[in-house]
């Protein structure tokens, strides 16, 4: 009986130790409306505490600290998005581009991106929050909304062009020869095309002119530089 009582007391103390006093928003549009109304920037936490060990450590190391919670509540609109809601992927995550859990971003009161401030150090986290408290962000479209280029052209080696077929494939035309590529993925730096027979991968720039190729050598992908290309069309964000 005594052991059970002590266990209950310990759990209560532990829950108090890691108590969350922050009134988190869970809806992006509501958080943005509050940010616009109050003139505050938005603190965005994307987390999966049920299974992600680094999310759990972030809770223990940073999010549970009184100094963090106090500064967040007084100066930001706090938005927490869990990986799942009612057993399904949280649709609110579609408002953000992120590479993994946990992710921590700052957005301004207009919903424009400021900075990624993820860290497990509470002093560094609060320091970044202070640094960007009154900062204005920049427009950054979601990856899913980006317009891909119509084509890329190059003059070296007799010239040629990569043509977007708008169906997940591209054609490399060099003279009378045509080679098909499969569109693998893209980010804010490169568009990646895979040779139809998986012999190599081409990285074409979303901005700029540098082009690269990866070939599989002894089980490892080895990157090399190719002559520059010129992007035709694409999202105005990269102009």
From TrEMBL:
InterPro entries: AGR/TXD, Thioredoxin-like_sf
Keywords linked to the UniProt accession: Signal
Signal among keywords: yes
Keyword check for Signal: yes
Recorded superkingdom: Bacteria
SUPFAM superfamilies: Thioredoxin-like
Name of the protein this chain belongs to: Thioredoxin domain-containing protein
Phylogenetic classification of the source organism: Bacteria, Pseudomonadati, Spirochaetota, Spirochaetia, Spirochaetales
């Amino acid at each position: 009986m005594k052991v059970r009582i002590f266990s209950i007391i310990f759990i209560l103390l532990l829950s108090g130790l890691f108590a969350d006093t922050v009134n988190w928003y869970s809806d992006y549009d509501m958080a943005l409306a509050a940010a616009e109304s109050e003139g505050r920037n938005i603190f965005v936490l994307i987390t999966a505490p049920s299974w992600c060990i680094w999310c759990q450590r972030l809770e223990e190391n940073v999010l549970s600290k009184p100094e963090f919670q106090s500064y967040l509540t007084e100066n930001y609109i706090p938005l927490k998005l869990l990986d799942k809601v009612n057993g399904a992927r949280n649709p609110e995550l579609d408002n953000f581009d992120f590479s993994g859990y946990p992710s921590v971003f700052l957005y301004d009161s207009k919903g424009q991106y400021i900075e990624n401030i993820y860290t497990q150090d509470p002093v560094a986290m609060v320091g970044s929050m202070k640094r960007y408290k009154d900062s204005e962000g920049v427009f950054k479209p979601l990856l899913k909304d980006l317009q891909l280029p119509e084509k890329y052209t190059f003059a070296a080696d007799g010239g040629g062009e990569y043509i977007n077929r708008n169906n997940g494939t591209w054609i490399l035309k060099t003279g009378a020869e045509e080679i098909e590529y499969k569109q693998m993925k893209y980010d804010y730096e490169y568009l990646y095309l895979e040779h139809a027979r998986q012999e190599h991968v081409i990285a074409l720039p979303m901005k700029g002119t540098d082009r690269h190729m990866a070939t599989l050598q002894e089980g490892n992908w080895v990157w090399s530089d190719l002559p520059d290309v010129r992007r035709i069309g694409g999202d105005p964000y990269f102009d």
